[in-house]
Amino acid sequence: MFRAHVLVCGGTGCVSSGSAKLIDLFKEEIEKQGLKDEVAVVQTGCHGLCAMGPIVVVYPDATFYAMVKEENVSEIVEEHLLKGRVVSHLVYKEESDAGENVKSLNDTDFYKKQTRVALRNCGVINPENIDEYIGMRGYEALGKVLTEMQPEDVIDTILKSGLRGRGGAGFPTGQKWKLARELVQDGGQKYVCCNADEGDPGAFMDRSVLEGDPHVVLEAMAIAGYAIGASQGYIYVRAEYPIAVERLKIAIGQAKEYGLLGENIFESGFSFDIDLRLGAGAFVCGEETALMTSIEGKRGEPRPRPPFPAVSGLYQRPTILNNVETWANIPQIILNGADWFASMGTEKSKGTKVFALGGKINNTGLVEIPMGTTLREVVEDIGGGVPNGKKFKAAQTGGPSGGCIPAEHFDVPIDYDNLTAIGSMMGSGGLIVMDEDNCMVDIAKFFLEFTVDESCGKCVPCRIGTKRMYEILDRITKGQGTLKDLDRLQELAAHIKDNALCGLGQTAPNPILSTLQYFHDEYVAHVVDKKCPAKVCRGLLTYTIIPEKCRGCTKCARNCPVRCISGTVKEVHTIDQEQCIKCGACMANCPFDAIVKE
Amino acid sequence: MSAAIPAPAQLPFQGTAEQEQQLRALIEEKRDDKGALMPILQGAQEIYGYLPVEVQKIIAEEMDVPLEKVYGVSTFYSQFSLTPKGKHQISVCLGTACYVKGSGLVLDKLKERLEIDSGECTPDREFSLDACRCVGACGLAPVMTIGDDVYGRLTVDQVDGILEKYKQQPHA
Ligand SMILES: Cc1cc2nc3c(=O)[nH]c(=O)nc-3n(C[C@H](O)[C@H](O)[C@H](O)COP(=O)(O)O)c2cc1C
Ligand code: FES
After folding, report:
1. Alpha helix (H) ranges present in A258-408?
2. Considering the entire predicted model, what is its pTM?
3. Residues B157, B130 share a domain
4. What number is the ipTM of this complex?
5. Ligand 2, residues B140, B143, B144, B153: which to mutate, most atoms within 8 A of Cβ?
6. Does residue B4 fall inside a structural domain?
């Protein structure tokens, strides 16, 4: 047994900040100090607080070191591990902390309000070692299901728990399984699929589960296989997630070796296998019918439903598809019971939800909160508020299918139905905070550009409609819009919502509709006053030189790419507004703050 | 979809016999798998770095499917590239978290410095530039990757310095 464990985060965020090198250094240093038999170094999955990476946690006391650099390693080993003194200057401190106060992981504001169910093992176990998962009661739920429960009991438990799909739409998971079990009973093959395509740009909860706790997905898929009568599973994972793919491969190999996947699991007569399929960068492939077509090796275009996948899915056989986070809840529900799960959350949304908190917020990272937590608690208490004294403007949830929530709805309890009611949606869990420097018209345009790009082209409302909406937004941001354009946007949006073939098109207007609703003034400023209040839209900006401040250093003129600034040395310079391309190079280079943009 | 139709013979195909051998072996291995086309295209892109028409033709012939189908799948997914990539592949994240923190400005700067648009490759095949959607390191936004290196908390000012590092070193 080891007396201490050094957990080094191996999630994508921390690896990007250089954590892989730290692991080697810790091992070296620990060996040098003769602690090899006392202290273990473990690479874990994501701890959530990615902005503070690389993160190192030392157990048993859960001391939380943040932004650890290579040159800090010897100090931590010598002071903390050898002499037992916490290296307080490297310990993570919160904004609110007055100085020396050394906190362990769970006492920080960032973690205190969280409840970890889906992320339970992330950052705690070594994802490449099946024994550590088993040590956390891993595969116990599968054992229980196979040896003590009938398939119907499993489905009943999931139904009663109230679990709804975490991939966006919030369909009751138990219901989906029940249909797939009952509608077709011809004894033929059925399939269990995992949606790990994580298309919402700016969201990485699924990635963190796959990287930090891959076995939980495998276990849950096997449980579902037993429940619906399937012996084959597929995980459809984005190729952009190489670490996740690697860990899944390792996990599948280990599970097969242990007999937890494959033939006759737990001597129960039940067999289940899982294969990986890599996505290739098409957002629409996150949609269920498109995903299945893509697994078949074709262009991943969606098709009309019905027939629903529960009747005719992959290879025209009954198929269920669930999101990674949905899967991550399953074994816990089996072990702790439906009532335990249903005790968390709101009336119609049970359990917890993981959000990827990003954008203009102090604590960017992953947070898991009980349903019903307010946006205010997430942004202010857990997220630590907006940095640099800027003002909160909106939180965007639901990615390209969602909307922007303004400060007036700060106290709405987060659940599926509430978010839909205020014009956004839960989505898969991206939560991007925007401050006064973000232009809401520009943000709407950003999302529309995304949908235009990702529209598969099969149906006209989506292919052409989103393009027209984008063009209108583009005009508005260039100062060429009119009030009539705002009506046109509303009209087009309603039409596309009703007529598009799949969820991509049906939800594409949401970013426009929600910003039109809550930030109408900002649109009006663009089309009537020809101003961008957030000073983002280039076409609406003017750069001018304040004569009183200009010293005639010529730096602006030399940096202007179109040479539209005139003036001689030690004389006041002027910008030719006709020629100016509003690149901002002059302002960035002026040593005297003599240039303003309006 | 986002994969662009290749500009006609902009940069000539330079495949080797060895690469072709690898490709044929790959097809042999996967040919009978269900839904084999995608994994084969992914493998082929690993071998050649991209999927020129010459390679698509081999795949179509070997698998006995029409070239249109191979082309249809290759152009549907943005991960497949029909144009060659540079020795150093630059990818700027335009995911939401990065965008609100100004990654668009970083991309503009790179376009200006490399004198290419996104989706293109410099004539000396040193650098190629792409915009991507979320690499999953949103905590470090704005983010770009060059080969396997990840650069987070980027500012426009750092662009020149970073490019300089790659100009000096012969391989990524
Ligand atoms: C355009 C589009 C993209 C989607 N992308 C994803 C995705 O990336 N991940 C995901 O889990 N679900 C995504 N979904 C939802 C899936 O279609 C499906 O509802 C979900 O995977 C079902 O799993 P769940 O019930 O566990 O949520 C997407 C839907 C649409 C319409
Ligand atoms: S949005 Fe850029 S890494 Fe996620």
Report:
1. 288-295, 324-336, 338-342, 375-376
2. 0.90
3. yes
4. 0.82
5. B143
6. no
